[in-house]
Input
Amino acid sequence: MSDETIILAQNLTTASAGSAFSFTNKTPGPGYYRQDDSSRTAAFDFTNFVGTVKIQASLELQPGTNDWFDVSGTVFTATSAANTTESYSFTGNFIWLRAAYNIQSGAINRIAVDGITVTAAAAGSSGSVTTVSFSNITNKPTTLAGYGITDSISSSDLGAFEFTGSTISTTDSSGITIDQAITITNDLTVSGDVLPSVANGGDLGSSARPWRSLYVSNNTIYIGGTALAVNQSGQLTVNGSTVSGGDGGSTAWNDVTGKPSFATVATSGAYGDLSGRPTIPTLTSQLTNDSGFITAADIPTDFKGSVFADDSTLLVDAVSGTIPYSVLSGAPTIPADIGNLTDTGNLLFDGDYGSLINTPAIPTAVSQLTNDSGFITAADIADGTLTIDVNNTGDLQGSVFGDDSTLLVDATNSTIPYSVLSGAPTIPTATSQLTNDSGFLNSVTNISSEDAVEIKVNLTDSTTHTWRFGEDGDLSFPDASVQTTAFAGNAATVDITNTNGIDTNYSITFVETRDAAQELRADVDLTFNSATNLLTVGNITTGVLKIEDGVHEKLQTKNSVAGGTVEHDCSAGHIFYHITPQANWTVNLTNLNLANGYATAITIVIEQGATGYYPSAVQINGDAVPHVWQGNTNPTPSNGRIDVVKFSIINDGLYTVLGQLTGF
Output
């Protein structure tokens, strides 16, 4: 006995309904034959297949729907057309095997399982049985009962029937009677006569199912006792007499005997030869008026209804009970304008006010009117003074103007213009119009001194804060801290600009003059906050900047950047520290404030996670700017290490960004 290939399915092409699986018939597995759990192989062959195929197994002798499970490692899924043969190895003493499949398109050519030894032993038996030829078996039973067949038919049940090969006969030579309808699907050959059981007992064919053709020799056909035959000359005979034309030629009507009698009209076809002809009416009075046709007697003396002309013009409108004026013949012309009339009797009004009679008097002077509304008259004004009698109650409302129309009292805005006041004091508009009795700086732009210079500021809380520029160039602040300048010289110039109050903003310029070609200049922006008593140093502009104690720059930290555009605020520093970014991101540098003709640098330190990422694009204030990486190649970030990205930014009218990534 050798291992066999079991075919579970072949040529499956019917598409599945959605994600539902179909199943092949179950087949015995290795456990069914009590074999070991050595490796077996499942093989699938496909053409343009899209779908899923897998092997399923059961450990039940009579598995139900829920007794099947997928065999691990035998699932094949194709999302695009697959033209392939796939095989999977599996182990297990499964009693039953089957295939589950879902076909979206294409075909499964074959599903097979190899490595199963097929024996005669079924599940639960103790071993296998060797097959032998039936002819080599001795003591075989000689009867069906000996083989255990108990539902066979006894020969006694066959009656007189006798079977010899394909021939049925009877042992007593009696006729065989079939008392039920019989259908023969092939040719019926009869060696004797075909007779009905009784006279006139049946038909050959029917009106619904006639025979197509009837072939007989020149013997006789009997129709109701009349014998029809064909003689040796091929002529048709009836009861032995030759029928004229029976040889296929035409037969004259006169030669036909026993002909019926026909009326004259049968041969003439004339209407006058018809008998029992009806009377055809020639007058309407001969007809019964059963459809209500109108006669002269039906027309009443008074006619009701609208009347239309032949061209469908409405002449009499019975609905409205009117006759249109436009259809009248000889109708007079009605004038469309008064000018079309002749006024012979002065009957028409000419439209002139002077033609009216009994006209009222129209006043032409104010004195002709009764002043019932309290209007002001000349009598109410005496010597230029307005006198209004309001019965000692009420207020005067309204604007007041001078003789030259100057607005003196503005009732609309409820104000009196300062400019119309007489004896009004002059309000100074410049500090030069004030007396400097407090020692304020007056028209002094530069303060020059070879000694120390102090700037005192009186605050609103009456406290005084002092900034002192020492002879050695040190700047002392109100909190007693000292800042050493990067230069020392023999002269200092201080420019002070007040924009929002004396204790708010300052711009100080230091100048050291060695000779005309070596003048050093430093511009410092200072902002003082009177609430916190802090002086903040802003932008410093200098020709040569020397730093002796180093620079500490603020570090900005950003955690787990997830990609997209990330703002980097340059007003808080130019160094950024990223911890474990999750994706490449776009650097948006805001508040960079890089003037034309200047350059700067941005440093981004990246503490990489398991997968390295880097800033792949650059924006300045939300606008994309071109950037070039070192070597004109996008960098490859490190994994799990530290990378440093430096952007050198140049503004020469257009931004240029040069990028460099270094791994550590």
